[in-house]
Write a structure and sequence with these properties.
The chain is mostly beta strands. The protein has 2 helices and 7 strands; from the N terminus they run βββββββαα. The mean pLDDT is about 90. The structure holds zinc ion (ZN) (2 copies). One zinc ion binds next to loops.
């Protein structure tokens, strides 16, 4: 995921990268290849790179524990200023870098990995309406209906039931 930017004229240039998740050290939650699709806008003093990223994630649902795969898309922007006044590769803010004029390579790998990790949701559900596992017998209620009496000690229901009686 490297760009030898001096090889390119000022203006827009398109890059595609495809890298195995294992090469990025991401094999635990992800499978297959990361597809990175970038547009570099180069001038003599700065380089702006906009990237779209596609990766397949492998999750276990927080409710029913089922494993499932999901495509994750994200995008990010990196800005590189070419200047004498900063040391090599120093990062000030996220996504903003300074390159000294004698550098010739931009490596997108670290930012790609960071942005992939940012896409991981806090709560992982196979489906918004996942019914989860039965608390009594443990079956996956998305797949099987069980006949367990679910003891709903929900006070709202208790009140309604009393009213009904
Ligand atoms: Zn689920
Ligand atoms: Zn059950």
């Amino acid at each position: 995921m490297k760009i030898k930017f001096p090889n390119y004229k000022d203006g827009l240039h398109h890059f595609d990268f495809e890298t195995d998740v294992e090469e990025l050290g991401l094999k635990e939650k992800f499978v297959g290849n990361v597809l990175l699709n970038c547009m570099m806008d180069k001038s003599s003093t700065q380089i702006v790179i906009n990237c779209n990223l596609l990766i397949k994630a492998k999750f276990a649902c927080d409710r029913c524990m089922a494993e499932f795969e999901k495509d994750i898309k994200t995008d990010f922007r990196l800005i590189f200023f070419i200047t004498h006044s900063r040391s090599n590769g120093e990062e000030s803010e996220s996504g903003i870098y300074y390159l000294s004029p004698d550098e010739d390579t931009i490596d997108l790998t670290n930012d790609t990995v960071e942005n992939i990790l940012l896409t991981l949701p806090m709560k992982i559900l196979c489906d918004e309406n996942c019914k989860g596992l039965c608390y009594v017998c443990g079956v996956n209620k998305n797949e099987t209906e069980c006949s367990c009496e679910v003891e709903t000690s929900n006070p709202v229901w208790d009140k309604l039931l009393k009213l009904k009686k």
